[in-house]
Amino acid sequence: MIPKIETASIEEIKSFQEQKLLEALAYANDNSPFYKKRFSNHSIDITTIKTIEDLQQLPVTTKEDLQQYNDEFLCVPITKIIDFATTSGTLGEPVTFGLTNNDLDRLAYNEAISFDCAGIKEGDLVQLMTTIDRRFMAGLAYFLGLRKMNVGVIRVGAGIPELQWDSILKYKPNYVITVPSFLLKLIEYAESHNIDYSNSSIKGAICIGESLRNQEFENNALATKITEKWDIKLFSTYASTEMSTAFTECEHAVGGHHHPELIIVEVLDEQNIPVKEGEPGELTFTTLGIEAMPLVRFKTGDIVQLHTKPCACGRNTLRVGPVIGRKQQMIKYKGTTLYPPALNDVLNGFSNIESHIIEISTNELGTDEIVIKLAVKIPSEEFLQEVKDHFRAKLRVSPKLEFTTNEILKDLIFQPMSRKPIHFFDLRTSIE
Q1: Number of C-alpha atoms within 13 angstroms, CB side, residue 367?
Q2: Residue 301's pLDDT band (boundaries 50, 70, 90)?
Q3: 10 Å Cβ neighbour count for 273?
Q4: Residue 135: closest CA among 84, 172, 82
Q5: Which of 130, 182, 260, 388 could bridge 398 with an S-S bond, Cβ 3.0-4.6 Å?
Q6: Do 253 and 236 contact (CB within 8 A), yes or no?
Q7: By the 8 A CB rule, do 256 and 213 touch?
Q8: Measuring CA to CA, how many Å separate 345 from each of 81, 229, 305, 411?
């Protein structure tokens, strides 16, 4: 069921959000030590902030703020915290997010309407291929959302293709929730063990952590590689612990749908000014309805483009396009600006490449250097040249390429404290 506000007119959605904004700012000012001090230090009277445009009068909140003043964001006594989640910080230590009972209810609602967006309905059965422990919010959110929908959940967790297939063949789930590159491992296992995966019960996958589309909403190399082998529907979703909100594709796959009752979205330039419509910028949000740790104008570090044309599914909310890249991961290489997703997409187009990592360092001139380490099925100089030529054709430049082995890359890519594969390693040092 689509929430009524998501099919309302653009004007009604804006008016609704502005009323929610007044409540959110008043709550933060009254209960958050961080925002109470921040607003006071900037001589801000929050009662003068009445529209989305007025948000520009407020300072932004950064990941560094969260890291340095983590406890000051908490708006309730510690005894009201029911769940503790953490996300990686920028200064080494993880950042803690506490959730109250009301926050957990909001999280469940968010995932329920997001999964509904992707077509999951009561009576379906979903296999959860991501961890629910280690203080990660995502797995818990998925479980709570599916439970709210009265949808069955098979909590298998991450990895172990044999156990995944054992559960699929035994319980016959309709959907899976997974990192999309893991679907390739499921296919590989099925093929080597004579499992007829094309006729399995799976009809769709809710994909997290890795992009499936390019900026034109066409399948990227990873999604193409999956769907050429396995004819299932892939749904991309974008979320973060900080926002406690997901942007999930509907069946039309033209960006992740915004839930206006849960979050206000801005896209800002380098000066923290909203970009012109259709231009890329840094996704910045203000949470609505969060009790323990609300955030005001929080900069995610993700460069995205918003899409405002009404969707064929009936929703009139804005949509977030695929993440172009993380601001801090931007690479300037031989005069060209690059982001890791573009590099990953080129590499994912080669079936001979089994795994890879991208290392960025600072050379003696103080500029960015790229080294990509590849584990391939059949290494050769000819193949190396083919990859270099493809990079030049797609991105105009070719990074340095080196062969290595799966054994060496495995422990780097699949780290115990990460819920998704890590392919990007930033070794850059600042030059004074």
Answers
A1: 7
A2: very high
A3: 11
A4: 84
A5: 388
A6: yes
A7: no
A8: 41, 18, 18, 22
On whether the CB atoms of residues 250 and 315 are closer than 8 A, the answer is: yes
Q: Sorting pLDDT into bands at 50, 70 and 90, what band is 134?
A: confident
Token pair in block for residue 207: 């994909």
Specify the residue for token string 């699929």. 168
Residue showing tokens 């360092």: 361
As given in the structure block, the two tokens for residue 321 are 């396009």
Location of structure tokens 């309302």? 8
Partners of 238 in the beta sheet?
247
Q: What strands lie across the sheet with 400-403, from one edge to the other?
A: 400-403, 368-376, 353-362, 424-426
Please name which of 137, 145, 177 lies closest in space to residue 158, comparing C-alpha atoms: 177
pLDDT digits (tens, 9 = 90+) for 344-392: 989 999 999 999 999 999 988 788 899 999 999 999 999 999 999 999 8
User: What are the structure tokens assigned to 21, written together?
Assistant: 């904004």
Q: Could you give the CA distance from residue 70 to residue 87 in angstroms, rounded to a whole number?
A: 12
pLDDT at residue number 268: 97
- What the block records as the tokens of 251 is 């069946």
Q: Please give the structure tokens belonging to residue 47.
A: 């009662």
Query: Are 164 and 127 a contacting pair, CB within 8 Å?
Result: yes
CA-to-CA dists, residue 50 to 25, 171, 198, 213, 281, angstroms: 10, 51, 54, 36, 24
- Give the separation between CA 399 and CA 236, rounded to whole angstroms: 28
Task: Report how far residue 100's alpha carbon sits from residue 77's, in angstroms, rounded to the nearest whole number.
Answer: 10
